[in-house]
Design brief:
With 64 residues, the chain is an alpha+beta fold. It has helices at 13-26, 47-56; strands at residues 2-7, 32-35, 40-44, 61-63.
Length: 64
């Protein structure tokens, strides 16, 4: 399952790395694509786990 989130408070490269690391830890082996300029995160796998991982990393995901 592919999930797309808008993460408005992801504003820099450090934010991107933090979100990517959180998703890779929560969903090992899942494909993660981040478009920092659009503030979009696309991830394969469990939507709830992905959303929770982004929140636990300190960001506010919204379903896109």
């Amino acid at each position: 399952m592919t999930s797309i989130f808008t993460v408005s408070d992801m504003t820099c490269g450090h934010c991107e790395k933090t979100v990517r690391a959180a998703l890779e830890e929560a969903l090992p082996g899942a494909a993660v694509t981040i478009d920092l300029s659009a503030r979009k995160v696309t991830v394969e796998g469990d939507r709830e786990k992905a959303e929770e991982a982004i929140r636990e990393a300190g960001y506010t995901p919204q379903a896109a």
